[in-house]
Amino acid sequence: MHARVSQQTQEARISELQAEVERLQAELGQDEDAEKIVHNHIKLLHQYNEAKDAAQILIGRLANLRETTVRQIHKDLELPIGD
């Protein structure tokens, strides 16, 4: 059994959501495009991941040359183990 929502309740909810959208747009900035920001953020994350992957390859090679573990290289260089 579905409860029916009154027209007045629906209109009130729509008004609340529109006010929230306006508040968030004001917080973001009127001239800012959220999709553009997200696209740029994703691009930066890809660049970060590529750099991190390259660094991990180099750390792995260094560990191999020193005949030790990657974990030990991280410890020796005071690098974080996780992200």
TrEMBL record:
Residues 7-68 form a coiled coil. It comes from the Eukaryota. Gene3D superfamilies: 1.20.5.170. One of its GO terms (cellular component) is Swi5-Sfr1 complex. One of its GO terms (biological process) is meiotic joint molecule formation. Transmembrane segments: none annotated. Keywords: Coiled coil, DNA damage, DNA repair. The keyword Chloroplast does not apply. Belongs to the SWI5/SAE3 family. This is DNA repair protein. It comes from Lentinula detonsa.
